[in-house]
Amino acid sequence: MRFGIFLYEGAEPIDLATFGVLSVARRLRPEIGICTITPDGGITTLASGLRIVADHDIGTAPRLDVLVVTGGPGWVAQSRSVATLDFIRRHAASALIVSVCTGGMILAASGTLDGRAATTKSRAVPPEVSPLHRMHNDHP
Asked: Of the candidates 89, 75, 92, which has an alpha carbon nearest to the alpha carbon of residue 138?
């Protein structure tokens, strides 16, 4: 089973905990594969300045069984990125798609949540604006 973790400029480093959980799960299920995917590949700077080197860009990502879409302040730009939204739609046709926190807003923008119930954080601490309010105003 192959998991892809989608990261982008401004994704939250805490969302990399997904990688850690899967790494531990691999002790019990060694067939689990994990890769990181970013829009452009190479080095990507997450929120707070952490830099990661992705395994793939969205054009070279392998077939996945599960795609994990991370959250973080960069979700706004990704929810407007045609390439990112197309990437998610392509994988949604054959893989389970899940998100962490505001990654759900990217899924909503891609249309993969249409007709489905979903949740994300509803409150924000100023100066952050609620992602639900932001999405409503940015994507009427």
From this structure: 75
Find the distance separating the first CA and the last CA of the chain, reported in whole Å.
37
Supply the range of the domain harboring residue 16. 2-138
pTM of the model: 0.88
**9 in Cβ contact with 77 (< 8 Å):** yes
Residue 104 burial class via C-beta count within 10 angstroms: exposed 0-12, middle 13-18, buried 19 and up:
buried
Query: What is the tally of structural domains in the chain?
Result: 1
Helices (H), the chain: 17-28, 75-78, 82-92, 103-110, 131-138
Provide mean pLDDT across the span 70-90. Answer: 95
SS3 33: strand
